[in-house]
């Protein structure tokens, strides 16, 4: 038996293959599919929700458990409308949109230009790609929408549907969903579904600082739903209208923000590598255009089948958010720093600066799925076939182990269920007895289960089982009493923590 891994498996894998796999094996379904679905909205299936929850749990533990100065909250989705006035979302949370008159399709103008730049980069013309990105950033910074339209025309950017350059003018489109709150329609007030989770942290800054007796520097983490009425929502779970964010706002003393920005840049990149993402599939991408309040901003990008795209952002936000809320609410958002006196400086109140780390749970899910999707050629005797499996980190795998009786008689199912009952309190395990055992192995490979445990007649004699490794397909005989230790060691988050 020989195995030859296709070195271009990920590069040659199309996104459609991963989307098909995700649906067929219970990871992601189109939302309300029986009614033909809803664009850019997805439901996580039985395996997808386990994988996504494992990613979120890993992030949460790494933030709040490994850092003694980071705590978590869970803020409400609905917030007072003035929250979004203070944050700038009501006035400036817009994307530039453009329509093609022939196809009647709407696009984000900046995305069209960025995709053209990516074409130049792929063709090896890096100078042209960088010049195009800088031109776009300059035009957006100046809010020159006419210039953006002229750039699209001058670059001969065509509509992917109609193939024409018959474009409308570029217009701004606010991305927030609004709704009404109140029992009587005429008395109802307009509120918004939050477009980000960060503001829930900022408005609770003093609540957490005082009740937790937190000292600057400290962080507040949150995982939660956010909503954006995206002009173009595509590429599966990469860009959706309803999504989950994992954000941490780290409050620092003014003047120290640069060192903390560099600190969190490296910590977050290391986290992605620790969860099993190859270093060559990750890169930093500094923002060409900074938000008006930002001092620095960088994206961590992953090499998806559709190119390098952002999975997490690290931003130095200055004191903008807390200062804005302080001004509009007329309630001080300041910190009294006792430590300044110990350093020979006078006591003082100040509005802390903020370093933000913001990751999309759905994007990390897609990154993990794309990275794990593996196709390799397997030779058994004279036959060669392609083996497909998900090479997930065992700590993230939806199912940790599957227990199979060799046959459905002679007491083997009862013994296998006994093992299942022993392991189920510590791990997410499943029991399966249908079909030939080879087919059962294949099904578990396709959902990324790291271990399969076979119960046979020898098990009844000496309480040993055969355990099969997903990646190598190697099998070993060991006592049932060893299973919990072997599985537990492999699937523990500690294996990831050790790399941080």
Automatic annotation (TrEMBL):
Domain of life: Bacteria
CDD domains assigned to the protein according to its UniProt record, in alphabetical order: GlyRS-like_core (cd00774), GlyRS_anticodon (cd00858)
GO molecular function, one term: bis(5'-nucleosyl)-tetraphosphatase (asymmetrical) activity
UniProt catalytic activity: tRNA(Gly) + glycine + ATP = glycyl-tRNA(Gly) + AMP + diphosphate
Protein name according to UniProt: Glycine--tRNA ligase
Protein role: Catalyzes the attachment of glycine to tRNA(Gly).
Entry EC number(s): 6.1.1.14
Binding positions for substrate per the UniProt entry: 108, 196, 243-247, 356-360
Keyword Nucleotide-binding: yes
Subunit structure: Homodimer.
Keywords tagged on the record: Aminoacyl-tRNA synthetase, ATP-binding, Cytoplasm, Ligase, Nucleotide-binding, Protein biosynthesis
Family classification: Belongs to the class-II aminoacyl-tRNA synthetase family.
Record: residues binding ATP: 228-230, 238-243, 310-311, 360-363
Single biological process term from Gene Ontology: glycyl-tRNA aminoacylation
UniProt domain Aminoacyl-transfer RNA synthetases class-II family profile: residue ranges: 130-398
UniProt subcellular location: Cytoplasm
PANTHER family (alphabetical): DNA POLYMERASE SUBUNIT GAMMA-2, MITOCHONDRIAL, GLYCYL-TRNA SYNTHETASE/DNA POLYMERASE SUBUNIT GAMMA-2
InterPro entries: aa-tRNA-synt_IIb, aa-tRNA-synth_II, aa-tRNA-synth_II/BPL/LPL, Anticodon-bd, Anticodon-bd_dom_sf, Gly-tRNA_synthase/POLG2, Gly_tRNA_ligase_bac, GlyRS-like_core
One GO CC annotation: cytoplasm
């Amino acid at each position: 038996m020989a195995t030859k891994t296709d070195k271009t498996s990920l590069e040659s894998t199309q996104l459609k293959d991963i989307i098909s796999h995700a649906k067929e094996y219970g990871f992601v379904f189109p939302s309300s599919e029986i009614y033909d679905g809803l664009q850019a909205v997805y439901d996580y299936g039985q395996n997808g929700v386990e994988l996504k929850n494992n990613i979120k749990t890993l992030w949460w533990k790494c933030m709040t458990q490994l850092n003694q100065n980071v705590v978590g909250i869970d803020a409400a989705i609905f917030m007072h409308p003035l929250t979004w006035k203070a944050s700038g979302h009501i006035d400036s949370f817009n994307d530039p949109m453009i329509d093609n008159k022939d196809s009647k399709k709407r696009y984000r103008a900046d995305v069209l230009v960025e995709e053209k730049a990516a074409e130049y980069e792929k063709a090896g013309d890096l100078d042209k790609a960088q010049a195009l990105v800088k031109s776009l950033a300059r035009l957006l910074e100046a809010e020159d929408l006419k210039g953006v339209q002229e750039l699209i025309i001058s670059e001969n950017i065509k509509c992917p549907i109609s193939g024409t350059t018959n474009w409308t003018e570029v217009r701004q489109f606010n991305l927030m969903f609004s709704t009404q709150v109140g029992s009587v329609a005429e008395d109802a007030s307009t509120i918004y579904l939050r477009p980000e989770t960060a503001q829930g942290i900022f408005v609770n800054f003093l609540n957490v600082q005082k009740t937790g007796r937190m000292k600057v520097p400290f962080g507040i983490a949150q995982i939660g739903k956010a909503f954006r009425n995206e002009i173009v929502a595509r590429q599966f779970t990469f860009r959706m209208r309803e999504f989950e964010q994992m954000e941490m706002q780290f409050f620092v003393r003014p003047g120290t923000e640069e060192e903390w920005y560099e600190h969190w840049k490296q910590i977050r990149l290391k986290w992605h590598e620790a969860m099993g993402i190859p270093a060559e599939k990750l890169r930093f991408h500094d923002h060409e255009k900074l938000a008006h309040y930002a001092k620095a901003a960088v994206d961590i990008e992953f090499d998806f089948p559709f190119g390098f795209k952002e999975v997490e952002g690290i931003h130095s936000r200055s004191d903008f958010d807390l200062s804005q809320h302080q001004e509009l609410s007329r309630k001080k958002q300041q910190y009294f720093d006792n430590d300044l006196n110990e350093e020979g400086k006078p006591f003082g109140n100040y509005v802390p600066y903020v370093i933000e780390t913001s990751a999309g749970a759905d994007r990390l899910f897609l990154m993990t799925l794309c990275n794990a999707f593996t196709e390799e050629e397997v030779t058994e005797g004279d036959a060669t076939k392609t083996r497909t499996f998900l090479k997930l980190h065992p700590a993230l795998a939806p199912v940790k182990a599957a227990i199979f009786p060799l046959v459905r008689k002679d007491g083997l199912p009862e013994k296998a269920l006994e093992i299942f009952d022993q392991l189920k309190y510590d791990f997410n395990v499943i029991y399966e007895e249908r079909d030939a055992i080879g087919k059962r192995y294949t099904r578990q490979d396709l959902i990324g289960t790291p271990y399969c445990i076979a119960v046979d007649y020898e098990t009844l004699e000496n309480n040993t089982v055969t355990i099969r490794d997903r990646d190598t397909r190697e099998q070993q005989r060991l006592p049932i009493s060893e299973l919990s230790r072997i599985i537990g060691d492999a699937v523990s988050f500690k294996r990831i923590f050790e790399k941080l």
